[in-house]
Amino acid sequence: MSRLLFFTLLVCLVLVGCKQRDEGGGEVEENLEAKAMLQGIWLEESSESVAFRAEGDTIYYPDSISMPARFRVIGDSLYLGSQRYFIVEQDEYHFCFQDYTGEEVRLVRSEEAEDSLAFTSQSPEILTLTEVVKVDSVVNYGGQRYHWYIAFNPTKYQVIKTTYNSEGVGVDNVYYDNIVHLSIYQGNNCLFSRDIRKQLYLSDVPQSFLDQAILANMQYDRVDAFGFHFNATLCIPDGSSCYLVETLVSFDGQLTMKLLEY
Fold first, then answer.
1. How far is Cα 66 from Cα 99, in angstroms, rounded to an integer?
2. Cα–Cα 20 to 30 A to 217, which of 75, 152, 153, 171?
């Protein structure tokens, strides 16, 4: 076989292989023209409130808590992260797509320079859910006086929750988880002192829930013959899903947990 014939066959095989990979579910090329038309600030057509700004391959939101999202336009759809929205209509000044419920969202391009003031920061605000920083009290039991302390310390560990804005678009909000420091003293004698993290409750709370949850609160309940009872609350941020887990500290400093309610 001549070198020319061999090279020709090799090129044909490579081209056929590429075509098969493309037809077999390979990455589809972006619609760069549609992506270019989306650049700029867009307003809700009915209210004229700022919806988002598209810059490069990123969409920014005007509120301070929603994380910017990478976007692509492929075929007839807008992709925001892993979420897909069907494009109904698009030109230089109008953009219409279906939100996650199938409702149409109609936007118009902003032509006012002051609309850029809605985007004062590129970095989203990271939220904390705990307002109380420290709480303590004195309790008496069995003729003895005890002093307990609870301190809430926001961490740098981020929990991301997806919510839907007024345009029906999924946006990611970022929250800081908490570490709760719990101490119990009898006079100057420290019976217990430990940092409590949400991972401590893995035996009572499913891992899938913990990954999305915040250690939102720790409250003193009572003291009895078993020890000091505190109730830990683990919640999905800004949601109604919570686990309430009893955190019991015995008089000899042993820690046990028991699920109370979900």
1. 17
2. 171
Task: Count Cβ atoms below 10 Å from residue 128 Cβ, excluding itself.
Answer: 15
H or E stretch covering 15: helix 3-23
Task: Read off the tokens for 8.
Answer: 């020709």
What's at 152, amino acid-wise? F
Terminal alpha carbon distance of the chain: 74
The CA distances from residue 156 to 43, 178, 209, in Å, are 34, 9, 19
Residue 239: closest CA among 262, 259, 258: 262
DSSP structural state of residue 77: E
State how far the alpha carbon of 232 is from the alpha carbons of 138, 153, 182, in Å.
19, 15, 11
- 23-42 pLDDT, tens digit each: 445 557 889 999 999 999 99
What are the tens digits of pLDDT across the range 219-229?
999 999 999 99
Backbone angles phi, psi at 119, to 5 degrees: -110, 80
- Give the Å distances, CA to CA, from 29 to 25, 33, 35, 75: 12, 12, 12, 9
Mean pLDDT over residues 67-83, rounded? 86
Look-up of token digits 């700022």:
50
> Are the C-beta atoms of residues 67 and 59 closer than 8 Å to each other?
no
Supply the pLDDT for residue 11: 34
What is the enclosing helix (H) or strand (E) of 74? strand 69-74
CA 85 – CA 173 distance, rounded (Å): 20
